[in-house]
Amino acid sequence: MQTREEALALDAADPLAPLRAQFTVPDDVIYLDGNSLGVLPSATPARVQQVVAEEWGQGLIRSWNSAGWITLAQRVGDKIARLVGAGPGELVAADSTSVNLFKVLSAALKIAKADAPARRVIVSERSNFPTDLYIAESLAAQHGCRLELIDDAEAIGARLRDDVAVLMLTHVNYRTGRMHDMAALTAAAHSAGVLTIWDLAHSAGAVVVDLQGSNADFAVGCGYKYLNGGPGAPAFVWAHPRHADRFWQPLSGWMGHAAPFEFTPDYRPAPGIARYLCGTPSVVAMAALECGVDTVLAAEPMGGMAALRAKSLALTRTFAALAEARCADHGLTRVSPDDDALRGSQVCLSHPETAYPVVQALIARGVIGDFRAPDILRFGFTPLYTRFVDVWDAVEHLMQVLEHGEWREARFNQKAAVT
Amino acid sequence: MQTREEALALDAADPLAPLRAQFTVPDDVIYLDGNSLGVLPSATPARVQQVVAEEWGQGLIRSWNSAGWITLAQRVGDKIARLVGAGPGELVAADSTSVNLFKVLSAALKIAKADAPARRVIVSERSNFPTDLYIAESLAAQHGCRLELIDDAEAIGARLRDDVAVLMLTHVNYRTGRMHDMAALTAAAHSAGVLTIWDLAHSAGAVVVDLQGSNADFAVGCGYKYLNGGPGAPAFVWAHPRHADRFWQPLSGWMGHAAPFEFTPDYRPAPGIARYLCGTPSVVAMAALECGVDTVLAAEPMGGMAALRAKSLALTRTFAALAEARCADHGLTRVSPDDDALRGSQVCLSHPETAYPVVQALIARGVIGDFRAPDILRFGFTPLYTRFVDVWDAVEHLMQVLEHGEWREARFNQKAAVT
To answer: CB distance A254–B134 less than 8 Å?
Structure first.
């Protein structure tokens, strides 16, 4: 891409372009942070209002049945399943990613203890999103295991030896945008007798994920990034059907009971993934999440996730090339992979000193990306609503910020926000 | 109370009556189920809309700072603290009651293991709300402890011997409305070397709770009952300051980290109650909860929880007496305690055969209480919006349902709803 006109022509020819009309993108914003918080779908305010004013306000307690609240976790889960290669009834929306990771890692460690008690290591990456590591640290201590962190992604395969119980990875790295080959690593893990847990926080709705085809063991993911479910939206959890019924997960709350309304004093887990539910979910948050998931499902007639992925790759490829061509003199280095097969839906640049103020200066201009410590400028590209002209304009702003030294004046008024 | 006019006169003289104007109670409904799902506050729809359309829609990721999302859990927690006798900075809104119970029971068991390793029993009541027992069952297994369930509330004190680590009780029983003496049982527990965990699901916003004055150890509670936070609202968690910093709770997600945005690979728990946070909370759900909590705080100038409690007792006392006087011939038995000091904010009646269809027939008439298996008709009285005339009218409807045998035709179209 050499000119802004070329970008506009690409948008005009883009069969996915109409999907942007599903969203309320502020006029004065180029939003490259959908990997932190997705944009508001236009349908969400009315749906949320309906849940609040009608279903809650008028229906009151009756709405658990009459408005279908009681099966929302499954209904939304079934929709998310279609985006990540899972079957109906295999995935539920629930709790937060951290809480769900606790559930599946607990289950995986119990399975490992039963099937291969000598395996006592959880392998992950040092650059994994911290909450995943914190949860693993907690469970490792509880189960007498050890959490081992790998620095080089290429070295993971070689580490899958017979002391390893679980390989726990985030599919697309939150800082670098590097994507693992889920099928290949899962196959390598299984041939070494290791279970796999995949965090799809930066994958669901952004890249093609095939949980069943990859033969993965467990997965969790986030509702508020590429699924556009709103700030702190419920997360999701999936267990392969071969594992779902094997053990209780420890957060054995009443919503995961086989018959919650029998109010029996003894826990009897529901069959399948429903046992991964715990307490009562926020109905309002769940309804907003459903609206967000629907915006991704709207791409199904146009080729679904494969088509979204193709556009996402074109966006990130173009942004990386333009940034390199136009900002080469300012000391920025590309951190995210060049190879399409290794890149998620984001482009990360680094600068040892100015990353934070440059991001601030861009935000002041309405170009919203984010900073990740210590030196990363992170730009996420949500193919549902990001245009090629946004790519052009964002790089133009970036160039001007750098050329004018505008970042020197950037107000240090924003700490890093929620990833 | 002998006549409807008397009821109207009591309402006219009630200094708390204006608080009802804070709510949107449907015209055709007498709502006696605020102990399951509180009524919609009139302020909530606009506030939720503001969060969705403005803070999320326009502010996007910037709102974590500019709209104060990042400290919502603490802000709402500080408000709830005022209703349950806790200090500022001691309580946070987070997750579900089940998840929060998992956190505090884990912490209590760790403390017991450190201070008194021979203590291996968790004592609770068989009639406790099941999710509490399910979570305790899970943690008992994990910690090599035993969950022992007491059938007779009066026998709890005698069971607090030197093998007991934790006494875990729901302050007001969900089925019977019976309330424990928190201060007395906590004192008995402490003198026996036992830690206490109180579930305030049916207490917060309904009865006077004094966590600090009672010297309790841990507490959790529900946001969607008497706090009017909406279906599945976030719950809350409190740890006495003497315990809060002693151990990690196992759900060590990034929101409980001392510096979440440093993204360090090692968990370092935040000081105080903030370490009881885990993942990213739903901002929309949290904002709705705040509106609900504000409706209770609005009673502060009128005497606060003590005044609300006095009205609640008058409502339940009147309902119980009227039901007994007017429906005595129909085989209903009162299950909730007669003694004010032992009764929460609900009246429970039982009937061995017709409880479920009678509740259905009442709902068909717009009198919403609920059924609790196997034989309980449960009526909750939220003093913020329930009037004496509602008490009169509800009993009138109950009498007619019973006298006309209307329950025989009640459609069996509603399973028990979320408590």
So the answer is: yes
A183 lies within 8 A of chain B by CB: no
Q: What is the pLDDT of residue B413?
A: 46
Percent of chain A with pLDDT over 70: 98
> Of chain B residues 99-138, which have a CB less than 8 A from chain A?
99, 102, 126, 128-131, 133-135, 137-138
Q: Does A208 touch chain B (CB under 8 A)?
A: no
Residues 297-356 of A with CB under 8 A from B: none
Q: A56 at the B interface (CB within 8 A)?
A: yes
Mean pLDDT of chain A: 95
Q: Which residue of B has its CA nearest to A268?
A: B134
A174: pLDDT strictly greater than 50: yes
**Which of chain A's residues have a Cβ under 8 Å away from the Cβ of B134?**
252-254, 257, 267
- pLDDT over 50 (residue A416): no
- Beta strands B346-350 and B376-380: pairing type? antiparallel
Which of B65, B99, B131 faces A415 most closely, judged by CB atoms? Answer: B65
B29 to A135: CB separation less than 8 angstroms, yes or no: no
Q: Is the pLDDT of residue B415 over 70?
A: no
pLDDT recorded at residue A414: 44
Is the confidence at residue B329, as pLDDT, over 90? no
Taking CB atoms and an 8 Å limit, are A96 and B53 in contact across chains?
no
Q: What is the pTM of this model?
A: 0.97
Place of tokens 């030294």: A405
SS3 assignment for chain B: CCCHHHHHHHHHHCCCHHHHHHECCCCCCEECCCCCCCCCECCHHHHHHHHHHHHHCCCHHHHHHHCCHHHHHHHHHHHHHHHCCCCCCCEEEECCHHHHHHHHHHHHHHHHHHHCCCCCEEEEECCCCHHHHHHHHHHHHHCCCEEEEECCHHHHHHHCCCCEEEEEEECECCCCCEECCHHHHHHHHHHCCCEEEEECCCCCCCCCCCHHHHCCCEEEECCCCCCCCCCCCCEEEEECHHHHCCCCCCCCCHHHECCHHHCCCCCCECCHHHHHCCCCCCHHHHHHHHHHHHHHHCCHHHCHHHHHHHHHHHHHHHHHHHHHHHHHHHCCEECCCCCHHHECCEEEEECCCCHHHHHHHHHHCCEECEEECCCEEEEECCCCCCCHHHHHHHHHHHHHHHHCCHHHHCCCCCCCCCC
Choose the closest CB to A262 out of B149, B252, B373: B373
Q: Give residue-wise pLDDT tens across range A249-263.
A: 999 999 999 999 888
Question: Mean per-residue pLDDT for A56-77?
Answer: 97
- The size of chain B, in residues, is 419
Q: Test B56 with A231 for CB contact under 8 angstroms.
A: yes
pLDDT of residue A116: 95
The active-site residue, picked from A175, A178, A343, A378, is A378
* Identified catalytic residue from A178, A225, A309, A372: A225
Of A35-39, A323-327, A410-414, minimum mean pLDDT range: A410-414
